[in-house]
Amino acid sequence: MTSKIIDFIVLDEEQNPLLNVEGFPTLVQAPIGKDIGQLVSMGKISHIEQFAQLASDIEQHEWAGAYLEYLRLVKWIEAKNSNLPDPVANADGTVTYPEPMPPLREPIRPKIRTVEQVLEPFAKALAKLKGIEFKGVNVALTETNQNGLSALKSALDLANEFGAEAQFFPINFNAETSSSIEVVTLDDETEFKEFGLQFILARKAFFE
């Protein structure tokens, strides 16, 4: 019966299950993962695919643990049922038979989830964090970046009002990404408008 969890148990040199004194195999160490939702909420998504794979692996390992416990209980129940007390004759002539313990339901193995399936509930938040790519930088679609662009637009309008637009560019925009702050250098007004338009259209999609 241990063949169902062969991928999760410790094997000896001959690739046979390494059994303990009770005759049961030992599970390999469970993977150590992190809460996907917490990582996303904190914006720490640089290795999110790896943690998604670990989450899927942990689900399978938890099933293997439940199945191993099921095997232990099955053996225990079989031992109990094989040593039931004798039937008891009652004064009224009836006989009371000891009730055997009912069989257990075998734990059903969950389907193996892909990385995409694990991350699907967080797809919108991840897309917002990954944002748009501009000049090699993945600019997150955050309110901080939106406020930064608005401030830059106001400064540009003021520069144009006083005829100082030639002195305004190039200008560095400190863009918030999913992992840090990176600099996007905007060389001229056309590039600034292109960047701003891409950002606003992408962010607008999250509120439609």
What is the compact description of this entry?
With 208 residues, this protein is mainly alpha-helical.
Tell me the layout of helices and strands.
Blueprint (H helix, E strand, L loop, with lengths): L35 H7 L5 H34 L6 E2 L5 E2 L18 H5 L3 H8 L1 E3 L2 E3 L3 H19 L3 H4 L2 E6 L4 E6 L2 H16 L4
Antiparallel strand pairs: 1-2, 3-4, 5-6
Oligomer kind:
single chain
Q: What would the average pLDDT be, to the nearest integer?
A: 93
Give the spatial strand order of the biggest sheet.
1-2
Order of helices and strands: HHEEHHEEHHEEH
Q: What is the end-to-end distance?
A: 53 Å
- The best one-word shape is elongated
Structural class: mainly alpha
Output the radius of gyration.
31 Å
State the share of residues found in helices, binned by percent. 40-55%
Roughly what fraction of the amino acids lie in strands?
5-15%
Q: Characterize the largest beta sheet: strand count, sense, and whether it forms a barrel.
A: 2 strands, antiparallel
Q: How many strand segments?
A: 6
Low-confidence stretches: none
Separate helix tally: 7
Describe this structure in words.
By secondary structure, this protein is mainly alpha-helical. Helices cover about 45% and strands about 10% of the residues. It has helices at about 35-40, 50-80, 115-120, 125-130, 145-160, 165-170, 190-205; strands at about 90, 95, 130-135, 135-140, 170-175, 180-185. It has a two-stranded antiparallel ribbon. The model has no long low-confidence stretch (mean pLDDT about 95).
List keywords for this structure.
208 residues; two-stranded antiparallel sheet; 7 helices; 6 strands
